[in-house]
Specification:
about 110 residues, single chain
């Protein structure tokens, strides 16, 4: 994967829940990294057909390994104005991480 194909800026974060002074749970986002990545939306080609196990995945991101950081399911990727939930992360050739994600749709924007 050449650097030229990694032409989108993503933010990798996780949701952290803490308790405030009154004992109520408060969740906020903790930014883990901002990196250049390759982005591919789901479409009907052979590669996506072979990923049938991840039928709810709507996007793929590929970026370089980040030292001392393990990408786990339920992490969040922000790309442009959209949020994606990580479904799976796989190490490719020891240099790249390939992440399959599903787009998180805000409750007010659900379409029936």
């Amino acid at each position: 994967m050449s650097y030229g194909k990694m032409n989108c800026q993503i933010t990798l974060l996780r949701e952290v829940t803490t308790k405030d002074a009154d004992g109520f749970a408060v969740s906020h986002d903790e930014i883990l990294a901002r990196v250049q990545a390759y982005h591919e939306q789901r479409h009907g080609n052979v590669k996506w057909a072979n990923r049938a196990a991840f039928s709810e995945a709507t996007a793929l991101f590929r970026f370089r390994v980040i030292p001392d950081l393990t990408v786990e399911p339920l992490y969040i990727i922000i790309y442009k104005t959209k949020r994606y939930e990580v479904l799976s992360a796989e190490l490719i050739r020891g240099m790249y991480i390939e992440v399959l994600c599903k787009e998180l749709v805000p409750v007010g924007k659900l379409q029936i």
